[in-house]
Amino acid sequence: MTRLLFTLTLTLAAVSSAGAQRGVREEGRAVRPVPNLDRIGVDERLDQQMPRDAAFRDHEGRPVTLGDYLDGERPVLLTFAYHSCPSLCSLVLEATRNVAKEQQWTPGREYQMVTISIDPRDTPEKAAEKRRESLAQLGREGADWHFLVGDEEAIRRVTVAAGYRYFYDEVEDQYAHAAVAMFLTPSGKLARYIYGLRFDPSDVRLALLEASQGRSISAGERILLYCYTYDQERQGYVLFASNVMKLGGLATMLFLGTFLFILWRREKRRGGLFDEAAPRTPPRSPDSRVADSVPAPPKQVEA
């Protein structure tokens, strides 16, 4: 029963970014308060620079830093988990994997996908096993997913910089934490947070576009990013009405301009009114019109 309550605590924390909920409810009645829920959550720190020199080890045991995955060209989808987690971490990784399947971009190509363990006891061997499993389930050719492990100091540096709050429960021997995906710019600044146990594919696509800061995205993707903005209350992207209207007005002007240009070219080819080079007959005076109406006298024939 205690383990079930603890799992429910993690689920509640996953859908609450600031620990707003204070108890488990059943049929509209408060059953019992959830302990330490205020220690779980996310304090958003947009534009915060993540510590590039934070030292970790990858799935092969090689020493790496967070900066190794910040190449100045590709955005980064960052998640926190740990590999002995019995419940929530698996759901977070599953949500990340599922939403990556639905993206046009491939992790490891157009963007980086990095998962950092919050448990300093995790080893590169565990990271390698989780990586093999996750990539096999992702099933995307050419995809890559980086799983990093590190000591408590390195973990604390990146989680504090990201505003990610969690704690270790000694009784349950588990970490209590929130479910969130974070998006970093190519230089390593926090650009967006998306919460939940299921990430909306459209929100993730827009977050990646936003985090990319305009690098290597198509004209259509630029227009898409221009038309949407992030709504903090709804915790998702919504249409930005004024920008949509501006874009519609621009499209209308382009259409009318194109139509008038085609009409002008057509009239020019026909020698019509729009053809300035066409010869024009000068206007005739009233006297000349009267003279034209009077018949000329007959010619006299000489004998």
Strand content: 15-25%
**Could you describe the largest sheet, including whether it forms a barrel?**
5 strands, mixed
Shape: elongated
Order of helices and strands: HEEEEEEHEHEHEEEEEHHEEHH
Strand adjacency order, main sheet: 8-7-6-12-13
Radius of gyration (CA) equals 34 Å
CATH architecture level-2 label: 3-Layer(aba) Sandwich
The residue-averaged pLDDT reads 76
Layout of secondary structure:
Blueprint (H helix, E strand, L loop, with lengths): L1 H13 L8 E4 L2 E5 L7 E2 L12 E3 L5 E3 L10 E6 L6 H14 L10 E6 L6 H15 L7 E3 L3 H11 L1 E2 L1 E3 L4 E3 L3 E5 L5 E6 L5 H12 L6 H9 E4 L4 E4 L1 H30 L15 H8 L10
Parallel strand pairs: 6-7, 7-8
Antiparallel strand pairs: 1-2, 3-9, 4-5, 6-12, 10-11, 12-13, 14-15
List keywords for this structure.
37% helix, 8 helices, 5-stranded mixed beta sheet, alpha+beta, Glutaredoxin, 303 residues
